[in-house]
Specification:
The protein is an alpha/beta fold. A four-stranded mixed beta sheet has the order 1-2-3-4, with helices on both faces. It contains nine helices and four strands; from the N terminus they run H-E-H-H-E-H-H-H-E-E-H-H-H. The radius of gyration is 34 Å and the shape is elongated. The chain starts with 7 loop residues before the first helix and ends with a helix.
Length: 261
């Protein structure tokens, strides 16, 4: 799967359905898969997925990926040469070492470069772009065939929801759920994340206790404290009255006795 294509949404062979041009099925895994529900859920969130007849979401579906065997082979392999030429962002030695030795770093850099190739320069665009990389059978020569999902976006405000979507999608693939169901759930999760971002004007959702609830709680605490103080005052006053009354009876009793004698 080379990184030499100038624009993935133009050069990549996308799915045949006109509504699913944002899905790049490189190994034809969706050729005989019913995707009606995927299309329906995409239409449900079309207002946040598209702008000017162009989708802000791209999904690259591959059978497996091949990680370079060493940092030296990265420079020699033409499939990764674009990462290190003058037209691309320079990567330091630590990133290069992680690219060949660390799966997470490899997927992170790979998804980042696919994002750049797919959407190009998206600076100044108010709607964030999202690139989803799905490797169904994991890495080449890995007998475990662990599926990997990596999502890259140019907007850091989506970092936390996208991390959760990554985990949920990977778990669905591990459970051998049908690929159409995995894509359907992925579309729904991405749509909800983007819709929430638009509804909140880019502000993170506040999961703390609302102000009215805090005020109501303080009012309840105040009422309870008032009731306790009132009860304590009334009980104490009654005890004081009883003590004084019993004292008067005793005194009056003594006076009557003295009068009798």
């Amino acid at each position: 799967m080379p990184l030499l294509l100038p624009r993935f949404d133009v050069q990549c062979k996308t799915h045949g359905s006109s509504k699913l041009k944002f899905i790049c099925d490189l190994n034809h895994q969706l050729q005989f898969v019913p995707l009606t529900e995927v299309e329906q859920h995409y239409d449900r969130f079309r207002s946040v997925f598209e702008y000017g007849n162009r989708s802000h979401v791209g999904i690259v579906l591959v059978r497996h990926l091949e990680q370079p065997s060493s940092a030296g082979s990265v420079y020699e392999d033409s499939r990764y040469s674009c990462l290190f030429n003058e037209e691309c962002a320079r990567l330091d030695a630590e990133v290069i070492a992680g690219f060949s030795n660390n799966v997470k770093m490899f997927l992170k850099v790979y998804a980042w470069k696919l994002y750049d190739r797919w959407f190009g320069n998206s600076d100044g665009c108010q709607t964030p772009h999202i690139l989803v990389l799905i490797s169904v059978d994991g890495l080449v020569n890995d007998a475990r065939k662990i599926p990997y999902v990596k999502i890259h976006s140019g907007d850091n405000r989506l970092r936390f929801p996208l991390n959760n979507i990554e985990i949920e999608t990977a778990n669905a693939l591990v459970q051998n759920l049908p690929i159409q169901q995995v894509l359907k759930d992925l579309i729904v999760d991405l749509g909800i994340a983007l819709k929430e971002l638009h509804d909140l004007n880019g502000e993170p959702r506040d999961h703390s206790v609302p102000r009215w609830a805090r005020h109501l709680g303080l009012l309840c605490v105040g009422l309870i404290a008032f009731a306790l103080i009132t009860e304590w005052y009334i009980v104490r006053r009654k005890l004081a009255v009883k003590k004084s009354a019993s004292g008067i009876k005793i005194v009056s009793g003594k006076s009557k006795t003295h009068l009798m004698f």
